[in-house]
Amino acid sequence: MKIVSPFMLVCSLITLASTQKSQAQCSPGYVQIIVHIIPDDYPNETSWDLKDAANTIVASGTTNNDTLCYPTGDILHFTIYDSYGDGMCCGYGDGSYNVYIDGLLIASGGKFTFDQTTYFNFPPGHITAKLLTAYQQLMNHCNNITLLSPAQLNALADSIHQYHFYLADTLPVISAAFDLIDCYETTAGPMFLNMATTGGYPNTPGALDGLEYDRAIFTIQQELFEALYTKDKIAEYRSYIQGRKYLTSDYFPGACPTPVDSAQVYTATVNASMPRHWGKRTAWSSTPARRPTGYYLAAGSIGSVKVPASMVNKGFRILVGAHSYDHSIRNNVRRFFRVTNTFPITDTITEIANPFGGGIYILTPMRRILASWRCN
User: Fold this and answer.
1) How many domains does the chain have?
2) Do residues 102 and 29 make contact, with C-beta atoms less than 8 angstroms apart?
3) DSSP structure class, residue 184
């Protein structure tokens, strides 16, 4: 376990400002990437690779230094590996690595276990890069590589919340978030089922009460759910989110086994009418009627709902999850604030997913009169 002292943090900030002189020029529209390796006493254990946004390796090596040109604007991630699991420093030699982009140091280190990844994209300072850096810092904290202070954890949670609209923009960002959630659920246990969060905790963001790490992970899970689990994003990242669930779903809304046969088709008859009633409107009288199908979407599953063409683009929506009340205004956090999501019916077939799972409902808008219909 390694705790970074204030002095070492200052040194890191100074190091990040260092530069490397270019050895070759790249054509316009390209950046120069230099990988510089100083091996430890066991160089045969060290290797590295550079991957693009699609996880395709664009360069790799062992303890050799390398210089390459790469198109500006693509997201990349550099990973250094140690096959023995003791990193490159400092038990058996003072090994280290440095990666430069057009002379600017963007990744460096030596103290890690089996691997260490740095995400970056161009130009420097893009929101995606900031998110990936925040995730990497939290991942190092989760793995007890570099522990963060309570104030640092709160600052990262605030930063992630600030950029929540970008959490599902690219696969590297999504992948890094899920990796961090997996690490937390594996090492600490699922939210509200582990020792720190069982029974809930005060809804006091920014508090210094020993729950800073848990609040940061809570923020990521909540914001990722709302950014990723939409109709368009599910279609875009379907193969990646298939089978991914939040383990906290066993606590709330409750455990539900994955279907044995995911291709099984079920049919439900639902009242698709909500006529306007006579008299004066009362509170929520115009809220869409919630019509249950009688079926449940297991957490981590992707389902398809097929409806008649007469319902397409008429204001009907599919709701996954019954508990649609927002708990963010409550004094104590005893479950995730928002666990339901809706999908507009703009085609006869709509794919649905929710990492918490939930009942499947049809939201029928006011003044729609379609009698009853069958959905598959």
Assistant:
1) 2
2) no
3) H
